[in-house]
Design brief:
The structure is a single chain. It is built from 15 helices and 37 strands. 21% of the residues lie in helices and 24% in strands. The strands form ten sheets. Strands 1, 8, 11, 14, 15, 16, 17, 18, 22, 25 and 28 form an eleven-stranded mixed β-sheet that branches. Strands 4-7-12-9-10 form a five-stranded antiparallel β-sheet, with no helix packed on it. A four-stranded antiparallel β-sheet has the order 21-26-23-24, with no helix packed on it. It has four domains: 152 residues, Galactose-binding lectin (Jelly Rolls, Sandwich); 201 residues, Galactose-binding lectin (Jelly Rolls), CATH 2.60.120; 86 residues, no CATH class; 212 residues, Transferase(Phosphotransferase), domain 1 (Orthogonal Bundle), CATH 1.10.510. The longest helix has 20 residues. A hairpin with a 5-residue loop joins strand 32 and strand 33. With 753 residues, the protein is α+β, with helices and mostly antiparallel strands. It comes from Canna indica. GO terms for molecular function: ATP binding; transmembrane receptor protein tyrosine kinase activity. InterPro entries: ANXUR1/2-like, Kinase-like_dom_sf, Malectin-like_Carb-bd_dom, Prot_kinase_dom, Ser-Thr/Tyr_kinase_cat_dom, Ser/Thr_kinase_AS. Keywords: ATP-binding, Glycoprotein, Membrane, Nucleotide-binding, Signal, Transferase, Transmembrane, Transmembrane helix.
């Protein structure tokens, strides 16, 4: 063999070496796709207190809670009350943390230094064990931080079972305080406290909005209360088995129809976390993704076979729902497609985990923002189910994990309507200054025994809605009457936005909040959700979303940025409701007709508007008047607030539509209750009469919502509330009546248009 041939032979790679290289490549690829090792998160701030305990307490997960003497420097209190279960009948199976407590008869505060601002867990442990000196079961108290109300007039639900309240708070300063304030004559207590740093990326700023659909931003600025954390189809996960010391409950007790689901699980080693992704073991441990519920009958596409979880919820709050998915059921890619529903509304249509994760058994989660207006029967429903009549893949649906978190409201509260600084009354004082002929006037209020009642001027003809649908025996309004009602409401809203010292955004404009007096003069009512408008230096007010389903500005819902243009959008819905005499949302109608605003806009674009107009108006509307009216309504419903007109422009267009209608009436007949748009004056309102019956409406609000301000309050004003509570209609007390008249006569009628 020549030297050249020998040299060429030395360049050849033996077959077994090629095989080894190939196997090594496969191994590297497998390691790249394998689940990353468990992430060890070390919290920067980690305060664990066993309140009232003489010595420190170590739990089985290794965490050590400081004793009361070790944590006394965190507490500011005028008393030193520590109690222990001792030899009482307390349940000894509970954690040792629950067998001691701190008791407060007066306002007391725990303060913690924060070395790194950001998301922090706050966990409060309560167990009302028997004690000879202090009755913990009767405790009523409030707990708040410097800017968030955590608990308001809280009392333990059960003296038998321990309660843990878990929060995810945004701490922006170098200190967080927890203030316990017992109600007068009661006491407060706490068994243990946790204040622990949370990972920075645990909660994203954006979520998928549910009705209206779209991106919901601003989550990172909200305080959250963890209401439920469920390991679907698997056992309970205790803190020592979680990557962040969380507890995941089994979902069995939350299945609406347990027979509709069946459990499945795989080894945690089979679970993969995608690289360069926000889905890490800190979001949820592999134990959560390794179990799931699938449809018990996985070969049906009937939507009635959806798997449904139901959980109690507070309908006055919006919620963040996090759903965890991992396809551990499929044998091949692109074989699992299903729908996701929340409160009966489509959350995700045709969810395809394969396209989202590019693999099987790969983790995925998604956040949804659920508006309070979609919560009925104080229940949140989460459903997964097959795609009806779809030939794609095998009909099935799965869910691996579920977290439900309450979002703080506009007052910065997670429990009730009161803010930390008591701004409930601040808003009342602000609204009490509003005086306009097209705004329902507040007469007075009282607040006693944690109950508030507000009294407004008597509006004999009730809400506009009743006059559109023929309810309560009211005849349909003529087109001219409807225009005058809308003009009056527009004047009231225009005054709110521009007439006060600082503009006010109503935030709940709808036909039930536009009331008519005995002369059919319209007045805007119910200021319970109102907010001060942005100042000249601001473009918007950042606040939690509030409003009514069907009238809510989609841009406000997505961005949580409130402006006067949100009222303009809602008023646009009202204008179409007045024209069509149908609700803003009617789920019983075909899908394309459910939402009035969308249906009306589509009909107008197709040139079919006459088909949706109230039949009672057939042939009674001038085409020119209708054109100008619809033009005004359509502009109000622009997608972006900057493209919507101001209320003053809407008012001008409506008055012009009325003039066009008058111009074609050959023999206009004067009608009762003509507004100033027709040149008639508005009659002075009579003093309020608190009565009950079919003759009219006494605007009395007892749901503790801040609508307007007290002109008087106290024990004398409470007399009328007792009278109503005893079911004695029409018996307004003489002393109360006289006081009403005095207040009414002294009220200025300035600041009117």
């Amino acid at each position: 063999m020549s030297a050249g041939e020998n040299h060429g032979a030395r360049k050849m790679i033996p077959p077994f070496v090629s095989l080894l290289l190939f196997l090594l490549l496969l191994l590297l690829l497998a390691r790249a796709n394998a689940a990353p090792p468990a992430v060890n998160f070390v919290p920067t701030d980690n305060y664990l207190l066993d309140c009232g305990a003489p010595t420190s307490t170590q739990l089985d997960d290794g965490r050590v809670f400081r004793s009361d003497p070790q944590s006394s420097s965190f507490l500011s209190t005028n008393e030193d009350i520590k109690i222990s279960a001792g030899n009482s009948s307390a349940d000894r199976s509970v954690l040792p943390l629950y067998l001691t407590a701190r008791v407060f008869n007066d306002r007391s505060t725990y303060s913690f230094f924060i070395s790194k601002p950001g998301r922090h867990w706050v966990r409060l442990y309560f167990y009302a064990f028997p004690d000879g000196n202090y009755n913990l079961t009767s405790a009523v108290f409030t707990v708040n931080t410097d800017d968030v109300v955590l608990l308001h007039d809280f009392t333990p639900d059960s003296p038998v079972s321990p309660v843990v309240k878990e929060y995810l708070l945004v701490v922006l300063s170098d200190k967080v305080s927890l203030t316990f304030a017992p109600k007068k004559g009661s006491l407060a207590f706490v068994n243990a406290v946790e204040v622990v740093s949370a990972p920075e990326n645990l909660i994203a700023d954006f979520a998928t909005g549910i009705s209206p659909a779209g991106d919901f931003s601003g989550v990172s600025n909200l305080a959250l209360e963890v209401a439920y954390r469920l390991n679907i189809g698997g056992p309970e996960i205790v803190p020592k088995n979680d990557t962040l010391g969380r507890t995941w409950r089994n979902d069995g007790g939350f299945l609406k129809v347990p027979a509709a689901a069946q459990n499945l699980s795989v080894s945690t080693k089979a679970i993969s976390y995608p690289e360069d992704s926000s889905v890490t073991p800190l979001i949820a441990p592999s134990t959560v993704y390794a179990s799931a519920n699938e449809m018990a009958n996985s070969n049906t596409s009937d939507p009635s076979f959806n798997i449904t979880w139901q959980m109690a919820a507070d309908p006055s709050f919006s919620y963040l729902i996090r759903m965890h998915f991992c396809d551990i059921v499929s044998k091949s890619l692109n074989s699992l497609y299903f729908n996701v529903y929340i409160n009966g509304l489509m959350a995700v249509s045709s969810l395809d985990l394969s396209s989202l994760t590019s693999g099987l058994a790969v983790t995925y989660y998604r956040d949804f923002a659920v508006n309070a207006t979609t919560i009925t029967n104080e229940t949140i429903l989460v459903q997964v189910g097959p795609i009806p009549n779809s030939g794609a893949g095998t009909p099935n649906a799965i869910l691996n994990g579920l977290e439900v978190m309450k979002m703080s409201n506009a007052a910065g509260s997670l429990d009730g309507l009161f803010a930390v600084d008591g701004s409930y009354y601040g808003e009342i004082q602000l609204l009490s200054k509003l005086r306009h002929r097209h705004l329902v006037s507040l007469i007075g209020c009282c607040d006693e025994n944690s109950e508030m009642i507000l009294v407004y001027e008597f509006m004999a003809n009730g809400p506009l809605r009743d006059h559109l649908y023929g309810s309560a025996g009211h005849p349909p309004l003529s087109w001219k009457q409807r225009l005058e009602v809308c003009i009056g409401a527009a004047r009231g809203l225009h005054y709110l936005h521009t007439g006060a010292s600082q503009g006010i955004i109503h935030r709940d404009v709808k036909t039930t909040n536009i009331l008519l007096d005995e002369n059919l003069v319209s007045k805007v009512a119910d200021f319970g959700l109102s907010k001060a408008a942005p100042s000249l230096e601001q473009t918007h007010v950042s606040t939690a979303v509030k409003g009514s389903f069907g009238y809510l500005d989609p841009e406000y819902f997505r961005r949580q940025q409130l402006t006067e243009k949100s009222d303009v959008y809602s008023f646009g819905v009202v204008l179409f409701e007045v024209l069509c005499a149908r609700p803003a949302v009617n789920p019983a109608l075909p899908r394309e007709q459910v939402n009035l605003a969308e249906w009306a806009m589509q009909s107008h674009r197709r040139g079919q508007l006459e088909k949706i107009i109230d039949p009672h108006l057939a042939g009674a509307i001038s085409p020119a008047s209708l054109k100008k009216y619809v033009e005004a309504a359509e502009k109000c419903l622009a997608d972006h607030g900057v493209d919507r007109p101001a209320m003053g422009d809407v008012l001008w267009n409506l008055e012009y539509a009325l003039q066009l209608q008058d111009a074609v009436m050959e023999h206009p007949e004067p009608e009762e209750g003509l507004s100033e748009a027709s040149g008639n004056s508005i009659p002075q309102q009579n003093p309020v009469v608190v009565e009950k019956g079919d003759e009219g409406y006494a605007m009395i609000n007892d749901d503790s919502t801040p609508m307007a301000g007290p002109l008087f309050q106290g024990r004398q004003s409470i007399l009328f509330r007792i009278d109503i509570a005893l079911n004695r209609p029409g018996k307004a007390l003489p002393a109360f009546d006289e006081r009403m008249k005095g207040e009414e006569e002294g009220r200025s009628m300035s600041n009117t248009l």
